[in-house]
Amino acid sequence: MNIEIARKHIVILNGGSGCIIQPMTDEYLYVLTAKHNIINSNNQLTSLVRFSYENNTWSSINDPVNGFIEGQDYFLHPNKDIAIIKIPFLEGFNDAYRFDNITEEKNGYYLLGYPEIRRNNQPHNTEWYRLDFGIQILDSRNDGMYEAQIPGNATLNEVRGDSGGAILKVVHNKLYVVGIQNKMAEEEEQLGRVRFSQISSFDEIVALNSQHLQPILPFYLKSFSFLEADIFNLEYGLLTQAKCEKLTEILKAKASVLKESNLVPNVIREFIKEKLPLTHQTEGYENCEKKIWALWLELFTILNIAKSKAHTIDDLPSIFKKVRLFYSNTDKDYWQVHLRDLLSKDYSGLDDNGIVIVASNKKAEDDLHILDVNKIPGSIFQTLEKEHDLRGLRTDVATDFPLQKYKFANISAFKEGVAQQVEDSFIADQVSNCITVLKELYEQLIPN
After folding, report:
1. 422, 305, 314, 294: which is closest to 360 by C-alpha?
2. How many helices (H) and strands (E) does the chain have?
3. Are β-strands 146-149 and 193-198 bridged in parallel, bridged antiparallel, or unpaired?
4. pLDDT tens-digit profile of 112-125?
5. Is 438:419 a contact under the CB 8 Å cutoff?
6. Three-state SS string across 340-371, please?
7. C-alpha distances in angstroms, 7 versus 86, 169, 373?
8. Whole-angstrom distance, CA of residue 269 vs CA of residue 271
9. What is the 8-class DSSP label of residue 70?
10. What is d(CA 392, CA 160) in angstroms, rounded to the nearest whole number?
């Protein structure tokens, strides 16, 4: 993503700025801003200007906010300089995510807002924005804010009106909102230091007004129905195309059953917490990746067929004794990139006959849908064994070699792998018979 396209998320609000983000709903949007932008205008919303990019041109749009009521349309934090404004839903704002891991990653941020000095000095409001590169997160402050450094020692006059502007980050070509800028660290300090509120602070407003506000999470975490277009997009060749198309049709139809279940992505996310389906759990943004939750929809569809059951929330504890899912946002074969990483994953609570399902953005290569340790080249396997032994010595804890203790399968084993196994008659067979065939194949992989 080009960071300047993020301008569509930044608005002029009263005398300051704000940031549009879609919460966990498709009914409305939020504008995150500094509370003083509203307080300083007699506790009212007087204007909201957003910007649209079409035909290579930016244009401004004045959204009506007169008559907005506190506690109904906008919500002020009782103690902190932050506020949430609800505005009518608009398409095109589901491409910004929250980012919480600022204690681990200190560099590479942006500040985007509409400072007052530019509004006064330039006639065309589409040119009023200011984008600061190379923002560095410094440390937390007692008032619940964080301090950050703007390169170039920006002064108060330069950033006044930026309040409510967003601290942003681009990761894997996706836009992440870190928080909103509140003020200069000190009015007389000429070091480009600003204070900002982390996006998690806005969770407090949501919690205080839960009857009116949805969490600041991607909308598709609310229901699997938002993910149906992203599932079971199989890769196939000339010989398996017809089988894959029939398999896709059946699996997508089965996935629709989960619409009626109380098993929704955010429930799973809350349940697994520290056992998120990630390869790198320190990055702080992957737990909201859309691909992860599309994979969970695929997994529960597969379990539905294997167990002849539409699972619910109550089934999660037993499922996690039998199955784990780890995802990596790589376009390469998972085994090639992360075979070594599997030695250090957390398998606590997984039964000895459990299965570990892995996934990336590519199906398994060399038809290695099921990991067979006997097929791993000897030199690689010996290196893995040696590293596992050394890890045990370092931790003083002897553990079984996981690649031999558990069954490991790429999720492609249940998709492209199955398409390679079924007979040609599968293509024209009745759906009920196809389900029986799939159930038999899936039962061979998934433990009872």
Report:
1. 294
2. 13, 17
3. antiparallel
4. 888 765 666 665 56
5. no
6. HHHHHCCCCCCCCCCEEEEECCCCCCCCCCEC
7. 19, 13, 50
8. 5
9. B
10. 56
Residue with tokens 């290569």: 365
DSSP-assigned letters across all residues of 378-427: HHHHHHHHHHHHHHHHHHT-----HHHHSEEEEGGGGTHHHHHHS-GGGG
Ramachandran angles phi, psi of 88, nearest 5°: -55, 150
Query: Any idea how long the chain is?
Result: 448
Tokens of 404: 């031999």
The whole-number pLDDT of residue 423 equals 94
CB 38 within 8 A of CB 83: yes
Please say whether the beta carbons of 9 and 21 come within 8 A. Answer: yes
User: What local confidence, expressed as pLDDT, does residue 398 receive?
Assistant: 41
Segment 137-164 shows an average pLDDT of 73
Q: Other CB atoms closer than 10 Å to residue 158's CB: what's the count? A: 19
Instruction: Give pLDDT tens digits for 378-428.
Output: 555 566 665 555 454 343 444 576 888 899 999 999 999 999 999 999 999
Only one residue has tokens 């070594």, namely: 340
Here the tokens at position 308 are: 């002849």
What is the pLDDT of the chain when averaged over all its residues?
A: 85
Token digits of residue 9: 């998320």
